[in-house]
Amino acid sequence: MHEISINLHMHTKYSDGSGTHTELAHAAIRAGLDAIIVTDHNIWVQGVEKYYELDDKKVLLLSGEEVHDQTRDPQKNHLLVFGAEKEVAAYASDPQNLINQIGDAGGICFLAHPIEKDAPKFNQGDLSWVSWDVSGYTGIELWNSMTEFKSLLTGYLPAISYSLNFDQVAHGPFPETLKKWDALLSEGRPVVAVGGSDAHQMHESLGPIKATLFPYENHYRAINTHLLLEKPLTGKVDTDKKLIYQALAAGHAFVGYDLPASTKGFSFTAHVDDQDIIMGDTVVSPKTATIQIHLPQPAESHLIKDGEIIKTSMKRETMIYKISEPGVYRVEAYIHYKGKRRGWIFSNPIYVR
Fold first, then answer.
1. More confident residue, 305 or 283
2. pLDDT tens for residues 310-342?
3. What does the alpha-carbon distance between residue 313 and residue 318 come to, in Å, rounded to a whole number?
């Protein structure tokens, strides 16, 4: 398998972001990403998907969409749409029909910031997902950078401090979101987890003082989704887009907070009968299986089965665990950064049936 790092869920001038597609792509190149997926609100922007180049380096920009019912009050149920190749915002009033339309078009979709907290002092509402009776979606956005920032807006001083110190914002997915994900997984269906930046890059001014808050490049160096592809990127847009969306749909991915330390090289596999099963895949009725975890550097890690920690490793790079019973197994890793314990790696599960 071939690992790439991508950033998804971001906005341009076509909705409520400040940058052009070219500016977003150049920021991604400077950050060392392989691809980004732009998701403007309720508009699928066509004609922008291509490889963008800067200083002999390149990045693939793909165009998706963040859809929500603009007439709903209060606002809820934002959905990230990839690969539908058509405008689907007209179906937003009925979340199940929206998901069906995306599936019929060959696309995939993820519940955006499924659990969110409001910030009443700044007139920011709770945009959580509430229609949990739906089915057919690909997964959820487990960790959203701007949703986490919003949860820290308890007053004007914290707002100013966190706005000017991006490296202090991320701590990890909300515990409520992790708990909800485990509950969904316990129902027996695969639910793929991704990380999103929700990048907008805001330009603010106070008299003569001007500042750019949460630049795209900062986001691209932080919460990313790492994909395991069947083969390397080819440089051809249609081929590589297919590879990326196939990996996302299969859950061949993990969420990595790359700002404290690169998460590239993380590995989580189940070894069964001379075969390595990767994240997102299923082991069927094994007599025994050996789970192997490898971190890019020593850190705190936890092997989790059906939502419960079954093994912990501290300050080590590897963990080996023999299993012989069914369950949903996943990995969380934590690292200390800027004086605090931070979420670092959150794997998609390996399913043992």
1. 305
2. 999 999 999 999 987 899 999 999 999 999 999
3. 8
User: Residue 261: how many CA atoms within 13 Å on its side-chain side?
Assistant: 17
CA distance 139 to 191: 4
Q: Each residue of 160-198: b (16+ CB within 10 Å) or e?
A: eebbeebebbbbbbbeebbebbbebbeeeebbbbbbbbb
Assigned CATH for 267-352: 2.60.40.10
Distance CA 100, CA 251 (A): 20
Question: From CA 60, how far away is CA 44, in angstroms rounded?
Answer: 17
| H-run or E-run covering 91 | none
- Phi/psi of residue 178, nearest 5 degrees: -60, -40
Q: Start-end ranges of CATH 3.20.20.140 in the chain?
A: 2-257
Cis-peptide into 74, omega within 30 deg: yes
Residue 205's pLDDT is 62
Confidence of residue 244 (pLDDT cuts 50, 70, 90): very high
pLDDT digits (tens, 9 = 90+) for 33-45: 999 999 999 999 9
Q: What mean pLDDT comes out for the span 47-59?
A: 97
Length of the chain, in residues: 353
CATH number of the domain located at residue range(s) 2-257 in this protein: 3.20.20.140
Residue that is written with structure tokens 């069914």 in the block: 326
Q: Give me the residues paired with residue 182 across strands.
A: none
